[in-house]
Design goal:
By secondary structure, the protein is mainly β. It has no helices and ten strands. The protein has a four-stranded antiparallel sheet, with no helix packed on it. It has a three-stranded antiparallel sheet with strand order 1-10-9, with no helix packed on it. Strands 2-3-4 form a three-stranded antiparallel sheet, with no helix packed on it. It binds FE2/S2 (inorganic) cluster (FES). GO terms for molecular function: 2 iron, 2 sulfur cluster binding; metal ion binding.
């Protein structure tokens, strides 16, 4: 893996999630990474409901049968294409997208 890569593409199961620690504008942040085929989306690992992490343990995210990301704290569901909360206590809010790109089989901040 190249030095500043977050993770290798194959380090994320297709349709699955990973978590990466990054520094954005000088602040340490936890990122949620979601892989779909050769594409990866990034979001801050912060739920818009109560600001909690979305994973129940580092890198362990829940996915519903409908294919939504489910916040481990109070069960808000998020569409993974847009980050929009489609059900639960913060319906209509959004996860904060963080642009990432895949290069040479590795995932980088864009
Ligand atoms: S903090 Fe995510 S649903 Fe409450």
């Amino acid at each position: 893996m190249t030095d500043n890569a977050l993770i290798s593409l194959h380090g994320i199961a297709d349709g699955g999630f990973a978590e990466a620690e990054v520094v954005i504008d000088g602040d340490a942040e936890s990122l949620l990474l979601y892989r779909q085929g050769d594409a990866v989306r990034g979001f801050l690992n912060i739920c818009p409901h109560a600001g909690r992490r979305l994973d129940w343990a580092p890198g362990q995210f829940l996915k519903s049968r409908e294919g939504h990301l489910v916040c481990a704290a109070h069960g808000a569901s998020f569409a993974l294409d847009s980050g929009e909360c489609v059900a639960g206590p913060c319906k209509g809010d959004r996860l904060r997208a963080v642009p990432v790109q895949v290069r040479d089989g590795n995932v980088f901040l864009a």
